[in-house]
């Protein structure tokens, strides 16, 4: 199937000096990583991501929450970057400046070749102590989690003995300031911003395309489903990121 890429987008990309990709769970969906708003399976089917991704849930039942994140970390380590991650990495060699700003806690952009990825919501592979904040080094190798997951006791901090928590931003927590400030700067300075595979529901990340639009950047959305960004994006490319992003590269360069 050939994808029609609008000519004004091709022209804008050929002349662009600075492109930002804001990505969400949908960019990793074709690598086999479930999105946040997909129904959960196995041990987790009675929960939503929001119910597990917060500090109160960890205080109440840390084995449930740690087990969920270790299960997700296993899935990510077994997964491979897909054609969308690779196309985004390839565009860095075509445009003078490219910034990747992701809400994802996986490392698939980096493994596809994107460097200096801004992780607004933290990273699965950077856990730290819930009590004192000291970073925790995970053992090498893929966690051995059964299909459907299991409860799992978190490790304890080598410095204070507190429990280690996942290295992600939970609901109700601040985003890492350095990553957020860099993302705002990029969105206010870019010529073209792509919002790829995000429901645009979670603030403050969902506000970033508006910063770009206010500065007259071209805002482009890549998503198979409608989102609240539909009315703001100048161009809506409707479909899977793993199909549209390589087609965009082929059509442009
Ligand atoms: P969501 O699960 O909310 O949305 C995923 C989006 O990806 C949806 O709009 C889908 O239509 C779209 N999608 C699915 N398959 C796709 C594909 N193959 N190609 C392109 N798009 C596809 O995930 P996010 O928007 O990333 O926050 O969620 C934002 C934040 O909410 C997450 O970072 C997380 C979550 O709760 C925290 O944990 C703090």
Automatic annotation (TrEMBL):
Cytoplasm found in the keyword field: yes
Active site (UniProt): 121
Keyword vocabulary terms for this entry: Cytoplasm, Metal-binding, NAD, Transferase, Zinc
The EC number(s) this enzyme carries: 2.3.1.286
Extent of the signal sequence: none
Residues in Deacetylase sirtuin-type domain copies: 1-253
CDD domains: SIRT5_Af1_CobB
InterPro entries per the UniProt record, alphabetical: DHS-like_NAD/FAD-binding_dom, NAD-dep_sirtuin_deacylases, Sirtuin, Sirtuin_cat_small_dom_sf, Sirtuin_class_III, Ssirtuin_cat_dom
Subcellular location: Cytoplasm
Cofactor(s) the protein requires to work: Zn(2+)
Catalytic activity: N(6)-acetyl-L-lysyl-[protein] + NAD(+) + H2O = 2''-O-acetyl-ADP-D-ribose + nicotinamide + L-lysyl-[protein]; N(6)-succinyl-L-lysyl-[protein] + NAD(+) + H2O = 2''-O-succinyl-ADP-D-ribose + nicotinamide + L-lysyl-[protein]
Keyword NAD: yes
Residues where NAD(+) binds: 103-106, 197-199, 223-225, 241
Positions bound to Zn(2+): 129, 132, 157, 160
Known function: NAD-dependent lysine deacetylase and desuccinylase that specifically removes acetyl and succinyl groups on target proteins. Modulates the activities of several proteins which are inactive in their acylated form.
Entry's family note: Belongs to the sirtuin family. Class III subfamily.
Domain writeup: 2 residues (Tyr-69 and Arg-72) present in a large hydrophobic pocket are probably involved in substrate specificity. They are important for desuccinylation activity, but dispensable for deacetylation activity.
UniProt protein name: NAD-dependent protein deacylase
Gene: cobB
């Amino acid at each position: 199937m050939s994808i029609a890429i609008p000519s004004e987008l091709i022209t804008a990309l050929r002349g662009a000096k600075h492109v930002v990709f804001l990505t969400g769970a949908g960019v990793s969906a074709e690598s086999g990583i479930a999105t946040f708003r997909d129904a959960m399976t196995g041990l987790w089917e009675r929960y939503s991501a929001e119910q597990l991704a917060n500090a109160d849930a960890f205080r109440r039942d840390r084995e449930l929450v740690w087990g969920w994140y270790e299960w997700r970390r296993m899935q990510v380590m077994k997964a491979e970057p897909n054609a969308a991650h690779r196309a985004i990495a390839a565009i860095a060699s075509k445009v003078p400046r490219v910034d990747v700003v992701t809400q994802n806690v996986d490392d698939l952009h980096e493994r596809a070749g994107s460097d200096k990825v801004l992780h607004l919501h933290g990273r699965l592979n950077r856990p730290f102590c819930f009590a004192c904040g000291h970073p925790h080094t995970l053992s090498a190798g893929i966690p051995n989690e059964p299909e459907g997951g299991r409860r799992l006791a978190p490790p304890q901090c080598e410095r204070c003995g507190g429990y280690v928590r996942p290295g992600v931003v939970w609901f109700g927590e601040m985003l890492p300031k350095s990553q957020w400030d860099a993302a705002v700067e990029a969105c206010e300075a870019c010529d073209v911003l792509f919002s790829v595979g995000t429901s645009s529901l979670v603030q403050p990340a969902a506000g970033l395309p508006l910063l770009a639009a206010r500065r007259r950047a071209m805002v482009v959305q890549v998503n198979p489903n409608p989102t609240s960004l539909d009315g703001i994006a100048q161009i809506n490319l409707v479909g899977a990121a793993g199909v549209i992003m390589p087609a965009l590269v082929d059509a442009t360069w």
